[in-house]
Amino acid sequence: MLTLPLKSRNMKTPTGIKITSTLVFIFILFFVGYICSRHIDSPILRNSFSTTSKNTKSLIQRKESPKRLEIPLNCSNGNLTNTCPISYPGTLISSTNTVENSLPSTKTCPDYFRWIHEDLWPWRNTGITKEMVMRANRTANFRLVIVNGKAYLEMYEKAFQTRDTFTLWGILQLLRRYPGKLPDLDLMFDCVDWPVVSSSEYKQPNATAPPPVFRYCADDSTLDIVFPDWSFWGWPEINIKPWDTLLEELKEGNRKKKWIEREPYAYWKGNPEVAETRKDLLKCNVSDKQDWGARLYAQDWGHEIQKGFQQSNLADQCTHRYKIYIEGSAWSVSEKYILACDSLTLLVKPLYYDFFTRSLEPMKHYWPVKVDDKCRSIKFAVDWGNRHKQKVQDIGKASSDFVHKNLTMDFVYDYMFHLLNEYAKLLTYRPTIPPNSVELCSETMACPANGVEKNFMMASMVKYPSDSGPCIMPPPFDPPSFRSIRSKKEQSVRKVEMWENKFWSSQIK
User: Fold this and answer.
1) CA gap 341, 259 in Å, rounded
2) Residue 99 contacts residue 469 (beta carbons within 8 Å)
3) Can you tell me whether residue 354 is helix, strand or coil?
4) How far apart are CA 363 and CA 371, in angstroms?
5) If you ran DSSP here, which 8-state letter would residue 235 be given?
6) Which long-range contacts (CB under 8 A, 24 or more apart) does 296-299 make?
7) Cis peptide bond prior to 104, omega within 30° of 0
8) What is the C-alpha separation between 479 and 475, in angstroms, rounded?
């Protein structure tokens, strides 16, 4: 049996004290409960609980989502930097921030990515040998080799203005966007407008495979591999800003004037001296004898440079219901700016295409204009459009939406990635660093640059690796769908030509 201590056994607690203590304890519990029930919903307590909850949630999020690490631009040696950082660019990124560990993309690439398969089709059976690549150097401006995520440049001939500079800059930004993801590759790039690889030379039974040449445009009779043009990263000589910036300005320009409030004419401004077809276009300008519904302006770039480009801001040129696209010496970079304007694009029948324009459809994204009867074709389009305002607005909006949604810099980089990745798969040899090459990186290009050129590089520089992988590549065209696309375009063009011919025939009577 348990024996209590002597003191405990002899002490007794009065019954009154027991009752009093119990009542006090109950009263305290009641009072605390009352206070809590009255004030638990007070703003102070709510904010306190809310703040605690948010802080806890924020801490959890910080643990789950590590801070993105910025890829630095190391110009520590000042403007004379001519060497690349040892670990540039992929190894500077934490393993938790690489593309391998990022979320896979759930976005399907725009339909024009399918043309990548078509452009690489000539080498589907033979692959691409080093001998084929080296044969392409007869016209190339430079050779670019990527080995272990680093770029090496072998220059052959300086390109016109800064075409080569900003093309190379764009590829370097791709390496920053997807560090360590591009395979080793070896390519030749020609920055001149006109494609040179004639398909007819390689159709003979014993003909060798064509040399793979990258450039900005091609046509149906050539096999040059089309690649996004330099102006996506800026064109300093004529003050065209990097595409990200310009696209936002074009959106703002579209908001300034609704389509119905715009001038009911077709607008074009450019350099007519580069092509006879443009000189011919100027004959369609308004005069005291004839109004073809066009307002055309010759661009004097020398004068414009002296005046600080005051009259050449592209975002200020979305003021007419119709805008004309016409090629220069070959394809023109102006096409994307014209299509982005909400105006109906009157597209003078082109000979050349770039990487995205083959997915544009007549009467869905533009109005086709005859190349050999421009004035009457433009006049008919303007008059027809002013009578069918809603239809014209729908086409203009469709082309503008195509550019603003499907031609963002995200998709431009993804197109480059998929094109170079598919190209690298065709190489039958392992690329090595050319003995006469120099290592190329953002530092060797941006640090010594100055003026507008440097400003555009800084504005277009990729600062972080992508949080996700590239968009999902669509499959190649099957033969029936490929024929259907061509047939649909041809039918739409013929339909418009039939309308035109019928109209002008009735005027003669």
Assistant:
1) 10
2) yes
3) coil
4) 17
5) B
6) 296/267, 296/268, 296/269, 296/324, 297/268, 297/269, 298/269, 298/270, 298/271, 298/272, 299/269, 299/270, 299/271
7) no
8) 12
330 neighbors 226 (Cβ within 8 angstroms): no
Reference 168, options 193, 187, 181, 183; nearest CA is 187
Q: Model confidence at 78, in pLDDT bands (50, 70, 90)?
A: low
52-69 pLDDT, tens digit each: 444 444 433 444 445 678
| Mean pLDDT, the chain, whole residue set | 86
Q: What is the predicted pLDDT for the residue at 11?
A: 39
Cα separation, 109 vs 367, in Å, equals 26
Long-range pairs, 259-264, Cβ under 8 A, ≥24: 259/321, 259/342, 259/343, 259/389, 259/392, 259/393, 259/396, 260/389, 260/393, 262/318, 262/319, 262/320, 262/321, 262/343, 263/295, 263/319, 263/320, 263/321, 264/293, 264/320, 264/321, 264/382, 264/386
In whole angstroms, what is the distance from residue 395 CA to residue 347 CA? 12
pTM of the model: 0.84
189 conformational bin, left if phi > 0, alpha if psi -120 to 50, beta if neither? beta
Give the angle 388-356-163 at the CA atoms, nearest 5°. 120
**C-alpha to C-alpha distance for 382 and 262, rounded to whole angstroms:** 13
- Inform me whether the pLDDT recorded for 449 exceeds 60: yes
Cα separation of 199 and 225, whole Å?
12
Q: Which residues pair with 103 in a beta bridge?
A: 468
- Give every CB contact of residue 148 below 8 A, 6+ residues apart in sequence: 184
Can you read off the two tokens belonging to residue 398? 């469709």
Alpha helix positions (H), 307-357: 334-339
**Is the dihedral angle over the CA atoms 370, 374, 378, 379 positive or is it negative?**
negative
The H helix count followed by the E strand count for the chain is: 16, 13
Q: How many CB atoms lie within 10 A of CB 413?
A: 23
Distance CA 240, CA 312 (A): 9
220-233 pLDDT, tens digit each: 999 999 999 999 99
